[in-house]
Amino acid sequence: MRFARTSLALSVTFTLTLPAAALARHAPRHSARAHRSKISHSRRHAAPETRIREVGVTTLEPFGPAAPADLKSDGTVDTIDQVAVLGVHEDDAPCTPDEIAAGSCDDDEADGTDLEEVPAQDLTKKGAFHGIISAMKGVGAIFRPKSAETRLSPEDEYLQELLSMNLEIPVAGVTRDRLQDSFLNPRGGRRNRRQHLALDIGSPTGTPVLAVTDGEIVRIGREKRGGNAVYLRDSSNRYLFYYCHLSHYTHGLMAGMKVKKGDLLGSVGATGNAHGAHLHFSVTRLPDDAMDFRRGLAVNPYLVFLFGSLSK
Questions:
Q1: Same domain? 113 vs 177
Q2: How far apart are the C-alpha atoms of 180 and 201, rounded to whole Å?
Q3: Contact of 297 with 143, CB cutoff 8 Å
Q4: Do residues 193 and 105 both lie within one domain?
């Protein structure tokens, strides 16, 4: 049997259906031009879906053995005739043997001795994260300094780390479609105006509050504004997760305790400066040389939860 040439193909295209609230702020504006009004109208009434673009697809090439000419499909079997090949290098055309022999080519990889083998799974994952992070930036604000002491700059690497954790939503029974983005919402009065660097998750008093990842409880206690609060640091010591307004803590919870993802930390409440039962939850990227969260970078938890399922 004659086989067609087979090429390595990596698929890094995702389709993510987002809650309507996630796209409300970024819906296309109505155009004043008559010939575009119909397009704008259809976009506003289309399903709330955003497509992450394909990454680096350069060619379509044959895949697998050539199908027999007399093969007839009854529609129950899917066949793949072509695959997309990713362009993972931007090098010029390779040197010819004559150029290499003459020493007139400076292509370090021409002899194959400097090539690095990259597992297909790793390459796919890298491309997937790039697409997901690009989509996150189009939906809402991602980073903000925690205070004037912050020296960290926003990096895509931080988002990749958080997405890789596949964080648990911290309130039992709440799914991502129930979340509403409250990051950067105004808080306080005229004299004490500030931005809300967290996510508020409304739920009845007594609803279980869970550890979003493996880590260590670094502090628990009563605070003036936050009421009953818990500080959880992840196992890499890079991220601090803050829970507050809890009605109570789980029995035996204390600073220094190791917890696992999904462990019970306490219950939703309205302690401190809270209007109605809810969990105030924040994510902070800590400085590598300090554990002081005031010098860290706030990350929008809403977007991390919204896109986290795509990174599995």
A1: no
A2: 8
A3: yes
A4: no
User: Which amino acid is it at 131?
Assistant: G
Span 19-59, pLDDT tens digits: 655 655 555 444 444 444 444 444 444 444 444 343 444 44
Element containing residue 292 per DSSP (H, E): none
**Maximum Cα–Cα distance across the chain:** 80
**Contact of 11 with 84, CB cutoff 8 Å:** yes
- The DSSP line for 131-188 is HHHHHHHHHS--EEESSTT------HHHHHHHHHHTPPPSBTT--GGG----TT-EES
> Residue 109 half-sphere exposure, CB side, CA atoms within 13 Å?
10
Cβ-contact 7, 84 below 8 angstroms: no
d(CA 174, CA 150): 32
* Contact predicate 296/150, CB 8 Å: yes
Backbone torsion region of residue 10, taken as left when φ is above 0, otherwise alpha when ψ lies between -120 and 50, otherwise beta: beta
- Mark whether 113 and 54 lie in a shared domain: yes
The CA radius of gyration of the chain, in Å to the nearest whole number, is: 26
In a domain? residue 196? yes
> What range does the domain containing 187 cover?
140-311
The three-state secondary structure class of 239 is strand
pLDDT tens for each residue of 136-189: 988 889 999 998 888 888 999 999 999 999 999 999 999 999 999 999 888 766
The number of folded domains in the chain is 2
User: 19, exposed or middle or buried, with CB in 10 Å at 0-12, 13-18, 19+?
Assistant: middle
| Dist. CA 199–CA 34, nearest whole Å | 40
Residue 298: strand pairing partners: 144, 284
